[in-house]
Amino acid sequence: FFFLMIRRPPRSTQSRSSAASDVYKRQVQIPLIRGHAGPIHDLDFNPFNDYVLATGSEDTTIKIWNIPEEYTQDLNEPAITLTGHQKKIGLIQFHPSAENVLASVSYDETLRIWDVVKQEQRSQINIKETPYGLDWSLDGKLVATASRDKVCKLIDPRANQIVHSISAHEGPKSQKFIFLGTTGYGLSCGFSKTFERELKVWDLNKLDTPVSVTSVDSAAGALLPFFDEDTGCLYLTSKGEGLIRFYELTDEKKFHLNGDYRSNVPGRAYGFLPKTSLDVSKHEIARFLKLTDNYIESIRIICPRKSDDFQEDLFPEARSEEPALTADEWFSGRDELPKRRSLRPGAHTAAGGQVRAIKASGPSQELQERIEKLTALVGDLETTVNNLQGQVGERDQVIQELRAQIQQLQTENDTLKAQGSQ
Length: 422
Prior knowledge:
The protein is of the alpha+beta class. The chain is elongated and about 140 Å long. The chain has a 4-stranded antiparallel beta sheet, with no helix packed on it. Strands 2-3-4-5 form a 4-stranded antiparallel beta sheet, with no helix packed on it. A 4-stranded antiparallel beta sheet has the order 6-7-8-9. Helix content is 15%, strand content 36%. The chain has 2 helices and 26 strands. Mean pLDDT is 87; it is low at 1-15.
């Protein structure tokens, strides 16, 4: 089994929106990733390393790959393999601010949190149904899942606890729930009782009723939301459609339709590229990769401006390629928002664009400390046992000597009795 490898475009150093697109045809011979024993269901690039890719497969494993800068040959051996799920992997996603922390949901109806480098599963939560959606909050405190039981669950991944459950949409089809950046709100996408596609905005501190409801249309495909936390824009599409809608989050926490991109070629899958991939000199505010049956299309969302100067209002600071936390810091209870950096050309050197291979580490520090403590305890116990055995041996010798003395005295006593009777 294999899949087409999609590489991010190089990082750039450089209203109402329009859209342009570039088409990349599949080459006849393109290097592939062939390391799984079943189809790949999801993939995610490491947000802090463009050359590290995670894949989740029907073979129940998650594999981590080092993508070489000159990618000319098939990849067969992953850098890391994560095992533990009992059924096929549904979705995977890296933590937004902590390095090498990964979430996964599976058809075994569990959410699992992994320390990738240490190859350790650190959390497991039973979500009780087949998963349809997975999303981290921006600070990594919560994970949201949506499942076939029409319930969206907000989960504390370190406490192994479901903290909120929302019956968001009455329709029977697939739902999704995503966090809306630092706004304190979340968005659910699903179907109404009358099979209309709809959006609902939720206050994360008051989840008993939605803040707003927006009707989309009555098409059949499940909605795929992509939220830009820097600008408050929502991009909405669906598998099997060629339409991407642009929404703006208003002060009333309702999404207002701002425009769209239309194509008569349906997309099999869509990917939303990071802000560091944009050409800011052309006022490109978002970019998608659209996979069709025959080619990959790069869709660029452009906000026209008369000036060629850098536009501060279009390009606020975006997520940096540097992690805010290590995996150990996050697992110990720390939370941080992702680091930010300017998109102004020349203001930043992208560390994420450098080739940095990932590899598994040895035993974790915590496990190593436990091993050392147990080894020392075993040594102490062996010393104690040896001492006790020595003391027991000495006491046995004393007892034997006393018994010999008793026997000698008994013999002398018997002799004296015999002499007295004579």
